[in-house]
Fold these 4 entries.
Entry 1:
Amino acid sequence: MWNARGMKPQAPETRPREEWERLASAAAPEGRAFIGGELLEPRGGRTFEDVSPIDGRVLAHVARCGPEDVDLAVRAAREAFEGGAWRTMDPRDRKRTLLRFAERVRRDLEQLALLETLDVGKPIIDSVRVDVPSAAECIAYYAELADKLYDEIAPTAPGEQALIRREPLGVVAAIVPWNYPLIISTWKLAPALLAGNSVVLKPAEQSPLSAIRLAQLGFEAGLPPGVLNVVPGSGEEAGQALARHADIDMVGFTGSTEVGKLMLRYAGESNLKRVALECGGKSPQVVMPDADLEAAAEGIAWGIYYNSGETCHAGSRVLAHEAIRHDLVEAIARVARTITLGHPLDPGTRMGALIDERHTQRVLGYIESGIAEGARVALGGRRVLQESGGCFLEATILDEVPVGARVAREEIFGPVLTVSGFRDEAEAIRLANDSPYGLAAGVWTTNMNTAHRLTSALRAGTVWVNTYDRSSLATPFGGFKQSGSGRDRSPHALEKYSDLKTIWSAYQ
């Protein structure tokens, strides 16, 4: 991928920006599709430029896959599934293969981290410490389940036996977003592969590079040809072709609610394939008057400004009791000022670039809309570092936001926090639940009776109490309402990628 000769070995976290930039300048990312165990040019030779949001430079010319390429990948996946080399493999051997896959991800930590940061603009320190290790851990987690899953025997009358088996669906399409390309890809790939399926992965057009490398590593680890394929391209072409394909058995999608609805429509108009969705969020953080304000401010600030707010469950909507709202806003602003905004290849940077120019203008438009609807800018609100050619936006707080304002109801997906007040617990619950989304929520209170009442009342897939964004592969992740259906992570994710078969036998 690059020539690092002449560089002394150094822990990734301690590399200075200059060394990361040298590695970046030497990188030659792969942009071809990965189908049937091979890197392939797209049919028709079409490509698109993959542009870094850090400085606007072209990282690679990437295969612009269309329906013909998708069909080729689906046929490779179907042949691999029907051939049975992976589907019927001894669970112990499947486990060993996936563990080798995880080890190759760990081995290529620096390369994958650099691809992730260059592609999406997140701080290199997060790519090194969080994204790549989390992807490897996810693959290993599901690998360890391979030889620990049991079928069931149902109670029957004497002379009969009812065996309940969990079997793979077949060919799974995984369509993933650009904010956490590696992490969310493995959330879908690992359980789908463990269940015995073949997979066609469609990365977001803004972030295709790590997905292509991931497929190469899986093949190197021993995944049979066609079991894991990658078709980069646009959502309108490659994504729609996958979702409409009559030989796809299931689509696992993470992205906007708007596109999630299209996935359901495409499934209905084609072969009624299964669809599992993890869509948008507008997650409330309810801060009660007895809360520890410093702890709440720390959790709220990192809950919105981590990854520049480009997180589906970002705690982007604060509902604060009027008695403490002003003090809370000041405390959040103090924490936000300590979160360094800068060049993503600088190890001291904790908040990097937004994904691209179009999205940056969208976020700025929301800030303008909030001001027009009566919000007060308590922090930030401006674009910065424009001389870099990148897409950088200050951490922003909009206070005194009317509860019906667009910025209080729609997903901004940027470093913009909205703050509104409430007078009592009943109003807090009503406002928190008054949203089309239900992905996550936070509760800040020192009274555990209050905490239990609120966690029971809030309609969200995850509710944190006196913390935010803590996670584990052992806990399921997904949402209520228009935040989607189905769950990623934990053994529950296997339910999406497999189905139950009853085998009823009579004997004497």
Entry 2:
Amino acid sequence: MLKRNFVLLVLFLLVSAVYINYRPQNIVEDVSIDINNGIDLSLVNENNEITIELLNEEYIIINLWASWCTPCIEEVEHLKELSESGRYYVLGLLVDDSVNNGQEFIESYKLNYKNILKQENVEMIVTKFSWNGIPTTLLLDKNFIVLKSFSGPITYDLISSYSS
């Protein structure tokens, strides 16, 4: 009887631990950000200078993606819609992929927002914050202060709910 109860207790604790720690891959959740005063963000020009020119956009969205990433494909239409809204400046950063694959992806999905494809240029930006896989999306204000960070695919409604 004691042995049976011990086995049941161990089984219960194991199932509880798995249940508490399980997170499906497509759930969007916060990730830690190591930034206090914003980050230096940009598109890299021929002089290795980084600049973003905001027109009327209120927010900046930075999206880490790869051509082989299925959740990245799922969020493309939402990112395009965010970019077209005029409220968001969307910048994609190709991570762990080749420039050729990135260019094919951009053409195939007709991306309407800017992307940085060269790994050395991407690294200049991604080293400024913590992230734990792709897709990762950052929502920033005009001063490049991170308002929210998402791990997993995002939607238009999700981003809008944090920036309204």
Entry 3:
Amino acid sequence: MARVCQVTGKKPVGGHKVSHSNIKTKRRFLPNLKTKRYYLAEEDKWITLKLTGDGIRTINKKGLYNVVKELRAQGQHI
């Protein structure tokens, strides 16, 4: 799962780099991915997730255990 957020599903998108003279060349917009370790107290273990800033805020809002439950329901191995 290269360059994909495990929580939000954000991935690279394509677009154009536009110069001052309005010449357009292809480029990629990459998500702001961070590798983050969390301690899952309910299972007494550490987990590592590849997250964007939005994914980190989602975990802060919903709680780690609820997010992990949703990911496992979708079929992700965590």
Entry 4:
Amino acid sequence: MNAELSLRLPPETASVSTLLDALESFADAHDIPMATMARLNILADELAANVAMHARGATHFEATTRYADGTLTFSIADDGAPFDPLAQASPDTDAPMEDRDIGGLGIHLVREMATSCAYHHDGSRNILTLTLAARAE
């Protein structure tokens, strides 16, 4: 089965809910395992919220989800200033809370929960692509 969902939304916090609602409908329509969609929802929430709150100069973001051959691919693209979240240092999760820097846990979560992550800038857009193996857990 091959299925795709594409959305173009303003970089606002309200768009995060719109995206998550659409992902839920997509999962229901295509019998995507609940555990896989739960992971995707966490990751999509984090990435869309980051665009809404931090993408300097962005006028929109595009989220595309593809489901084929047991794999979910999620891409989020924005037209803001170039920024590679995967190039950021991983937080020291072993350090005591009071010694940790603020931020950085979201992208750490993305790196840990996704099967793979890749970033590129195509000249006008930041594009972050994740894959998840669709499996019941």
